[in-house]
Amino acid sequence: MFVRRRRRPTLAGQLLVLQLAVVVVVLVLVGAVSLAQSEATFRGVEGRRVSALAEQLGGNPLVRTNLATPSTRTGLATLGQSVVTQSRVTSVTFADADEDVRTSTDPSLEGGRIPLPRKAVADGASWSGTLELFGQRQIVSQVPVFSVADGHVGEHLGTVMITEAFPSAWQRLRGASSYLLTYLGTALIVGLVGSWLLAQRIKRQTLGMEPEEITGLVEHREALLYGIAEGVVALDPQGRITLVNDVARKLLDLPEHATGLSLTDLRITGRLLTVLTGDGEATDEVVVRRGRVLVMNRMSVDKDGRHLGTVTTLRDRTALAALERELGSFRSSTQLLRAQRHEFANQLHTISGLIQIGEYDEVVRYVDAVSERRHSLDLSVNSRVRDPAVGVLLMAKASIAAERRVDLRISDDTSLDRLDTEDSADVATVVGNLVDNAIDAAAGSAGSWVEVGIAHDRTTVRVTVRDSGPGVTDDVADSVFEQGVTSKTDGEGEHGIGLALTRLVCRRRGGEAEFHNTADGAVFTAHLTVTPVPEAVSR
């Protein structure tokens, strides 16, 4: 047996009911205030009028004469009924000096005693206030009647009491203002229409989703944004950050209150600003930020023809770059073996050909020349570069350069002592990147060459790499280190990261990387601070 779940009211319906309730409560409060004001007005105005009528009757000669004559009622009854009719009060009562009712327009008071809220009234005092008479609240004024002889007040003859009943709530509400009901009805209609329109607007703005759906969407979004390893930054069309997760805040070094601030407020400039605010989409853009190598992808967000902003994802490749640096030595060894295999194969082919044609003396001279050239290169490198890792790297680059018909030279003033392991790895990274860049720039032209110079004092290593290439073009001259850009057009491999890593390593070491063009090509210079090595070890 299936139990049908009770359908929960929609968000628009809940808002409509809530606003209707608010409107009704406001109308009730307005009505209550109007009733309170009406009652206060009635008590003040009608209380003064009833007191004035009672004072007027208390001084009427006809009242004195009739009260002074025992058992006289006709004149008083006529006068009382006339006052009720003309003044529209509830009742008029006349009592003698013993508080016995002589006559009253209210039959319920006939034959009894008038109510005395104060004992002083029986002794001739006046009183005005509110009394509960026969289950009805009334305004009451009691005035004594005295005889007058020769212009002097005489004995107490009796009391005049005039009452006026409080109107009902409906009468007071209707009498508060001739237009009050119209105002309240109009306000109710306007409130109903406004509540319905507001409910429809909220429904459109929430895309028709109900509260539980919105809650679930927010929870899933939070889990998605803060559960992934990549950074996410969302910008509106004005360049303000609308969303940033913890990973992106850490990678970009942003404050915790970055949401809502513009990129200008956060002092983001240069390459990072260009990638975040560029037009269209961007794929695998490389940005160096505060010592980190970041790869960023930007996507434009549009809906119904409106541009809502951009969403950029970023991931940290600094650790990967360090891993690539560690693998660089293995890659260099592989390239060295491949280049040497190619070179030795050519030499063996040459020797085989000379033997086949019987030029045995030429074979000897050729082998001596090859050995001399190899010994000269080994001697040139090993005598000037005493750090094993950098020396082997230069030997590998020399073989690769020879394969690409580029002459790799070691300058005469090169001198590098043995370095600490971490220093050696960083210097090898810088030398390898600069030499690779120079070989790529110089290759392809006759008589091309690359010259490497390394100077080392106790705390600093300076690497200078010259090439015979065309130099750095003006369009990338200002950003060749900062951005993941390249002047290479071969489309093979991943370019635009080597020089950025070079500057990153140099700056982390307290140095700098720079370049300038010459008539022969480009000159790249890198400075690194290294750990001083004791003299005994350096020897």
Write the layout of secondary structure elements.
Layout: H1 11-58, H2 61-68, H3 74-87, E1 91-96, E2 101-104, E3 127-133, E4 136-149, E5 152-165, H4 169-176, H5 180-205, H6 211-227, E6 231-235, E7 241-244, H7 246-251, H8 270-277, E8 282-289, E9 292-303, E10 306-316, H9 318-356, H10 360-384, H11 388-403, E11 407-410, H12 421-442, E12 449-456, E13 460-467, H13 474-477, H14 498-508, E14 512-517, E15 522-529, H15 535-538
Helix pairs in contact: 1-4, 1-5, 9-10, 9-11, 10-11, 11-12, 12-14
Question: What would your notes on this structure say?
Answer:
The chain is α+β, with helices and mostly antiparallel strands and 539 residues long. It has three domains: 12-173, PAS domain (Beta-Lactamase); 228-316, PAS domain (Beta-Lactamase, 2-Layer Sandwich); 320-538, Heat Shock Protein 90, CATH 3.30.565.10. It is built from 15 helices and 15 strands. A five-stranded antiparallel beta sheet has the order 2-1-5-4-3, with helices on one face. 25% of the residues are buried. The model is unreliable at 489-495 (pLDDT under 50).
| Count of structural domains | 3
What is the radius of gyration?
54 Å
Structural class: alpha+beta
Mean pLDDT: 78
**Number of discrete helical segments:** 15
CATH architecture of the largest domain: 2-Layer Sandwich
User: What share of residues are in beta strands?
Assistant: 15-25%
Order of helices and strands: HHHEEEEEHHHEEHHEEEHHHEHEEHHEEH
* Top CATH class of the largest domain: Alpha Beta
- Percent helix, as a range, is 40-55%
Question: What is the total tally of β strands?
Answer: 15
Question: How far is the first residue's CA from the last residue's CA?
Answer: 92 Å
The neighbouring-strand order within the major sheet is 2-1-5-4-3
